[in-house]
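Progress narrative, work stream C.
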Amino acid sequence: MKPSFDSCLEELVRRAVREEVRAALDAQGGTSSSAGLLNVEEASNRLGISKSVIYKKSNEGIIPSVKQGARLLFEPEALDAYVAANRRSQQQINDLAAAARSPR
C-alpha cells in the first residue's frame, strides 16, 4: 500500500524542521544547550565510553544528568567529578597488576 499524501507531506515537514533546528543549533556553536551542557554523544566522547553505557549510568544515577524534553544532557563538571571519583590510584593499579600475574 502506498503512503498517503498527508503522511508523505508530514514526513517532509519533519525532515525540513529537523534540518533547520540542526542548522540553528550549529550556528549557536554546537548541538548542546546554551547553558554549556553536553549531549549524550559529547559525554560519550568526553568519557571515552559508549553511548549505551552513558544511558545506563545516567538511569542508575551514577552519572548526574539533566532531562530537557526528550534530551539527556550532562554538565561537564559532573562528568569530570565522575572521572575523578572513579580514578584508580597507582597503588590500586599495582595491586591489580600483581593479582593478574600471580598464579591461581
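Work stream C, second folded protein:
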Amino acid sequence: MEPPVIQRTDATETDDEDINTQKEAILPDPQSDHEELCAEEGSQPADKKRKIVTDLTPEQEEDMIQWLRDHPVLWNKKLTDYKDITLKDALWQEQAN
C-alpha cells in the first residue's frame, strides 16, 4: 500500500509544521507494526537469537566444552557432516542422557 500523496499550495512555516504533523499521523510506524506482528505470532524478531541460560557448575561447563571439542561436526561448518541434522540430533540426545 502506497502512502497518500499530500498536495500543498501557499507553503509557509506554519503549513510545514502542519504537514509534518499530518505525515506523522498518516504514515505507520514500522517498529510498532513489527512489534505487533511478533506479538501475534508469539515469536522474537528474526534477527535476534534466543539465549539459552543454564546453571552449569564450572566442572560441568568444562566437560561441555571438552565434549564440543570432541564433536566438531556440531560447530565446524567446513565439515561435510555439519549439515547432517540426524547425526547432530543423535549426538545432542546422547549428551542429554
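The chain has four helices and no strands. No further action is required on this item.
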